[in-house]
Amino acid sequence: MLKQDVQMCDLCGLVVEIDGFTVDIKEGKTLKFCCAGCLSVYRLLNGDNIVE
Ligand SMILES: [Zn+2]
Q1: pLDDT for 22-47, tens place per residue?
Q2: What's the 32 CA to ligand 1 centre distance in angstroms?
Q3: Domain count of the chain?
Q4: Predicted TM-score (pTM) of this structure
């Protein structure tokens, strides 16, 4: 069975299987992460680029 619309974690590259770990950035894109850990690491590294 092929999965459609597979999303990759924008931090570690793993397949995102759970929705909800997303962040909007200033470039107008929404990044997806596989887990709360990747999301929080991205926030630490790129806090200036995140739209709250
Ligand atoms: Zn990840």
Answers
A1: 999 999 999 999 999 999 999 999 99
A2: 9
A3: 1
A4: 0.83
